[in-house]
Amino acid sequence: MEVIMQDNQREELAYFAGLFDGEGTIGINSRYSPKWQGKMRQTDPGYAPYVRIGMNDEKSILSVYEFFKVGHYYPEKSYKGYRAMHRWDCRDQGGVRYVLNCLLPYLRLKKPQAILALKFLDECTRPEGVRIGTPFDELTVKKRWDMYLEMKVLNGIDISEYSPAETKRIGRPKSIRDASYSPNSQVTVRGEVEVPLPPYGSVSES
Question: What is the pTM of this model?
Answer without folding.
Answer: 0.72
